[in-house]
Write a structure and sequence with these properties.
Strand order of the largest sheet: 8-5-4-3-2-1-12-9
CATH architecture of the largest domain: Alpha-Beta Barrel
Structural class: alpha/beta
Distance between the termini: 16 Å
CATH class of the largest domain: Alpha Beta
Order of helices and strands: EHEHEHHEHEEEHEHHEEEHEHHEEEE
């Protein structure tokens, strides 16, 4: 994952997006956190002002969620709105109960989605489906979501991690199931409460992100969109928590350190453990090593690339780079290395 692929789902900030001025102020805060893109949804301000605020603050509008009546009856309006926003991706946001009452109504619903996808594809646009938990019910032993996707083959999948979990399924498995069909990917954590659950910043709930993120990378996701339907504190703080966790644990440092050659999706590594250990041991090192097997990231400061042979278990002292230079650990540090990648 690249940092430039991280985006904010604006539904998270819907209460802060009711006027052009409010949108501009919110976008400035989003940019200050470090995000570089947004997905438009839940915005009450005119779309022209949203585009202007994005341009003013150096943000990309990567996608939108279009209104259901327009998707089913006025695709030209959808296309015009996407052109105004300067993006080519949109999605169906939320199914209603009556649309999936039984198998017959679900097939009729899927046929409408397929027609929308075909028409939008013809205009050079992509159309995805955003799931909730309702689609993990079954008709005749078949998941409703599978039924929808099977009967709308031109439609992409916008998998939402929280709602897959709420539906009683494994997010990584569903991401893998629809590999190659995902452009937009929604990230939100799952925090259990008594007899229910709530959304939470990435890394603060119980989802298995060390499995989910590599699966999404391998599946071809282009945008990793952070969303939180409800926040227990200031939503900007929640968005920052998610951003910091993703950057610390999953963003490839190759974007910022040209010497790093890690391939996309190759490894998921235990950065949270390593960063804590490095902080306690006062390790500070800024040189980037370059070779092919492992990446060790210390406390937002260092990325070391080294082979298994070069990385000695126990007390690492000197790690040689692929270019013949070396980086020295300033203090011996006992580290338990765990390879978690494929």
């Amino acid at each position: 994952m690249k940092k430039s692929q991280l985006a904010v789902q604006l539904y998270t900030l819907r209460n802060y997006l009711k006027s052009p001025g409010a949108v501009d102020r919110a976008f400035a805060k989003i940019k200050a956190i470090g995000y570089e893109a947004v997905q438009v949804s839940g915005v009450a301000a005119p779309l022209a002002s949203v585009r202007k605020a994005a341009d003013n603050n150096g943000l990309i509008i990567c996608a939108a969620h279009s209104e259901t009546p327009d998707l089913f009856g006025n695709r030209n309006k959808v296309a015009d709105e996407l052109a105004l926003l300067g993006c080519r991706h949109t999605a169906f946001s939320c199914v209603s109960d009556w649309q999936i009452l039984d198998r017959e109504s679900t097939l009729e619903f899927a046929a409408g989605l397929e027609q929308a996808a075909v028409e939008l594809n013809a205009k050079g646009l992509t159309f995805s489906y955003h799931n909730h938990n309702m689609e993990f019910g079954k008709f005749d032993g078949e998941y409703i979501l599978d039924l929808i996707y099977a009967n709308a083959p031109h439609m992409k999948a916008e998998i939402d991690t929280y709602w897959v979990q709420m539906g009683g399924c494994d997010p990584a498995e569903w991401i893998t199931k629809y590999s190659g069909r995902q452009i937009l990917f929604h990230l939100k954590d799952f925090r259990p409460l008594p007899f229910t659950a709530t959304t939470a910043p990435v890394g603060t709930g119980n989802l298995k992100w060390q499995e989910i993120i590599p699966a999404a990378e391998k599946a071809g996701a282009e945008w990793f969109i952070v969303e939180q339907d409800t926040c227990s504190k200031d939503p900007f703080e929640s968005l920052k928590d998610s951003f910091d966790d993703l950057v610390r644990n999953f963003v490839r440092r190759s974007d910022e350190n040209p010497g790093c050659s890690r391939q996309p999706g190759k490894y998921a590594f235990p950065c949270r453990f390593l960063s804590d250990a490095a902080e306690k041991s006062n390790i500070r090192q800024t040189e980037t090593c370059n070779s092919s097997d492992f990446a060790v990231y210390f406390h937002n400061i260092t990325l070391w690339k080294c082979s298994r042979r070069q990385f000695r278990m126990g007390y690492p002292d000197r790690i040689r780079s692929g270019q013949g230079t070396s980086s020295t650990v300033r203090r011996d540090l006992k580290l338990k290395w765990k390879e978690t990648g494929t």
